[in-house]
Amino acid sequence: MTKPRIKYWIVILIGSLLLLYMLISFYFKKHFFFNTVINGVDFSLKTYKDAENKLRNVMKDYELLLLGRNGETEVINGPDIELQFNEKNSIPKIINHQKALLWFRSISQNQCYYVMDVYTYQKDKLDRVIKDLIFVKRPAEEPKNVSFQYVGGSFEMIEEVYGNKIDEEKLREKIITYLLRGNRRLNLEEEYCYEYPEYTIYSYKSLITLNLLNKYTATTVKYKFGDKYEILDGKEINKWIKIDNNLDVSINEKAVKNYVNRLSKLYDTVGIPRQFKASTGKVVEVEGGLYGWKINQAEEVKALMEIVIHGNAIEREPIYSQKALFRGENEIGNTYVEINITRQYLWFYKDGKLIAHGPVVTGNPNRGHATVVGVYMLNYKQKDAILVGPGYESDVTYWMPFYGSIGLHDASWRHSFGGTIYKRNGSHGCVNAPLHLARKVFEVIEPGDLIISYEE
Predict the structure, then answer these.
(1) 304 backbone dihedrals φ, ψ, rounded to 5°
(2) In what order do the strands lie in the sheet with 36-38?
(3) What is the sign, positive or negative, of the torsion defined by CA atoms of 437, 443, 444, 446?
(4) What span, in angstroms and rounded, lies between the C-alpha atoms of 101 and 26?
(5) Are 98 and 108 in contact (CB under 8 A)?
(6) I want to staple 163 with a disulfide (CB 3.0 to 4.6 A). Which of 61, 97, 141, 284 is the partner?
(7) Please, what is the Cα angle at 49 between 43 and 55, to 5 degrees?
(8) Cα–Cα separations (whole angstroms), residue 148 to 158, 206, 208, 242
(9) CB 374 within 8 A of CB 453
(10) What is the dihedral of CA 313, 315, 318, 320, to 10 degrees?
């Protein structure tokens, strides 16, 4: 075959192929490309008319099957919501926008479309159908986040509860989408139509919370009260912990206050009844006063919360607003001023040695000025003081207050002491002593030494 002949046939072949290509391109002016799927239906090489007929057939006996949890099902029937084919849908635009000359690309590429105006429905009827769904109208079990329980010395997680409460807005949105696409099967679980717990046992936040809870309850505080101890550990601390809906952990300050308050009731000794062996040899009960141990509850609560937050294990004494000389049955020791109101007599002991004693005059009980009873501490001592009160002003040489404006002092205006003078001519609450007795006490007593006032 000659060269001109070969060229001729090559031209013929190329022309034929080109003509075939153009004919195919022209074909795709009215037909869908290869691998064209619209709303889940294959329309490859179909005309719009073919597609329309196929979509109309989809509407015959249309039902949307709703699949819920635990095998529950519901059905939405097309006629119940007047589901109809939309003559003015936008499927033709898909063909119009096809670039026919590029039809060959569709051989290896999928053309997937979702057209949301293929069908129409009656909104009010769909709303009623949705409200009547068993998924929606029945009493629902609410979802619950993972929770935490203190067991055997530590916290553990309790699995979340999924329940069966429907997210109505999400369900409605998915039903409409499936209807408009012509889909017949809606899995509520797969489309997240339920309300879900925000946190599960697999959530990162859950693990953080668990670790924090166990850090707090690992705290051990060994409180020392003299030769007695109170052990605080997770058995008590776990009751103080609050966990909010976001799994954020906090310590209930009120619960901590209640615990510290309980310690105060057990171990504070200010004003408690004490058995006291008087100088007369009798054992008397002395109650009241300001002396003794007293926990500073506000400061101890702050300190304790910090200890728990850091998960410490320590031995400590609580923070005190006031301390006694020591812990014991009466905490009085052997340095004190003893005032027997019944006998109107005073004794002063220093380190167990009797330094001074003598008669006194205490407050007049018949005029509401009785001297306070109880165990007190000397606040300070002052020489040459002026005592001022309602209706009186007195100069004293030795002033030793132990309860506000009440104290022990000399009384130069008195010529006798002791007996029953206090009942008719007693003081305004102070303990009046002869000058020599007041001086002996003043010279030896120190601030903080005890004053014990009682009646037999």
Answers:
(1) -65, -40
(2) 41-42, 36-38, 111-113
(3) positive
(4) 8
(5) no
(6) 141
(7) 60
(8) 6, 9, 12, 11
(9) yes
(10) -140
Give pLDDT tens digits for 95-121: 788 886 777 778 888 888 888 888 888
Residues 6+ apart with CB under 8 A from 380: 401, 447
- Nearest of 21, 28, 20, 58 to residue 45 by alpha carbon: 28
Cα–Cα distance for residue pair 271/231, rounded to 1 Å: 26
Q: Which residues contact 340 (CB under 8 A, 6 or more apart)?
A: 278, 279, 280, 346, 454, 455, 456
By three-state DSSP, how is residue 419 classified?
A: coil
**Residue 314, strand partner residues:** 221
**DSSP result, 204-223:** HHHHHHHHHHHHHHT-EEEE
pLDDT higher than threshold 80 for residue 311:
yes
Q: Between 22 and 435, name the one with better pLDDT.
A: 435
Query: CA 279 → CA 99, 106, 112, 357, distances in Å?
Result: 119, 116, 108, 10
Model confidence pLDDT, tens digit, residues 20-78? 777 777 787 888 788 888 877 887 888 878 877 877 777 778 899 999 998 899 999 98
* Joined tokens for residue 412: 């130069």
Give the position of tokens 């022209």.
Answer: 26
Residue type, 443: E
Tokens of 351: 């380190």
Q: According to DSSP H, which parts of 218-291 are helical?
A: 234-237, 253-267
Nearest to 135 by CA among 77, 73, 198: 73
Q: Which helix (H) or strand (E) holds 10?
A: helix 3-27
Cβ neighbour number for residue 420 with a 10 Å cutoff: 10
What are the two backbone dihedrals, phi and then psi, of residue 335, each rounded to the nearest 5 degrees? -125, 110
The pair phi, psi for residue 80, each rounded to 5°, is: -65, -20
> In this predicted model, what pLDDT tens digit does every residue of 208-223 receive, in sequence order?
999 999 999 999 999 9
CA quadruple 438, 440, 446, 452: dihedral sign: negative
CA distance 326 to 215: 35
